Amino acid sequence: MFDSDALPPGDRVDAWHEVVARSLIANRMHIERPDDFHASMRAAQLGAAYMSVATYPSLRSLRTERMIKRSDPELYMLASPLRGRYVFAQARRQALIEPGDFVVFPTFRPYEGIVRAGDGAAGTLVCTFPRGLLPMAEKTDGLWGRRLPGEEGIGGLLRNFLTQLAGDAQTQLPGDGPRLGVVLLDLISAMLAHHVEAEERVPPESRQRVLYAQILAFIQRNLADPDLTPTAIAAAHHVSLRSLHRLFHDHGHSVTAHIRQERLERARRDLTNHALGDRPIHAIAARWGFTHHAAFTRAFHTTYGTSPRDYRLQAHGRATPGRSRAQYPWLAASDTAGRDSGRA
Fold this sequence. Notes:
- Pfam families: AraC_binding_2, HTH_18.
- This protein is of the alpha+beta class and 344 residues long.
- It has helices at residues 12-23, 65-70, 153-167, 176-195, 204-221, 230-236, 241-250, 255-272, 281-287, 293-304, 308-315, 330-343, and strands at residues 2-3, 28-31, 40-46, 49-56, 59-63, 75-83, 85-90, 93-97, 101-106, 111-116, 122-130, 148-149.
């Protein structure tokens, strides 16, 4: 974690150069208003990859041939603006990168980036990873420095993953980093392979992990659809039903159980939401794809140890006769999650 405001104004720019060189790559930066400089960065190691989220004012950054000769760890970088506009130039190619877009480029070639913050600070999410981990590196030269959309398809999946990763950074356990890094590199490889039509160059195990991530995202988007079934999911992803079941079995659960658990969790959250306190329980169940209220009640009781009605009463501080709040230890976690969500 880095926050320039913790330093005296005269030390902030030098400290920013140092933290960027240490966490990302050495650059030469020209800052428009060094006397009023404010920047921050959060960074995390994810196995072989490194991810950072930074905020900073308008600036121009350069990586020169001399800097590359002095030190080059041979990395690729993926950047995605969160706020502001980013003009990137490399190998006689220039692109305007805006929020929702990606740009991927090698650190072993000179480049120039110009960031326009507009009102407030610019924000950028950056991932770095070793050159040798990209399975089709020799086929992707034409993508370096180009605008790559991140609104749909694999690009959208990658952006959602990164956004969630950045938001959940403080809740991750030390052992999560390598596993998340594998998924991140799989998604980056799949996105680049898609743009150069080289999907066959992605290793089979990586393709399976990307497919699994795509299916999980598809399920999340369609939880409210009562027709969300394994057959529909398999058809939407052009795989056999047997392959779909095997994929989920390899991850330790079944498709049907995953859908049911995700629906129950969404319904549980709605039951704790005071803004939905007047909404009938059967309407909440239907909202998340439960077409039979009795089946929803049974599944809810099996999972959470109480009925949806009693759960709602306890969550809203209205205890049912003969029962105390201490009988429901899961409510403490629910309350904490709700307060955290409200602060977010």
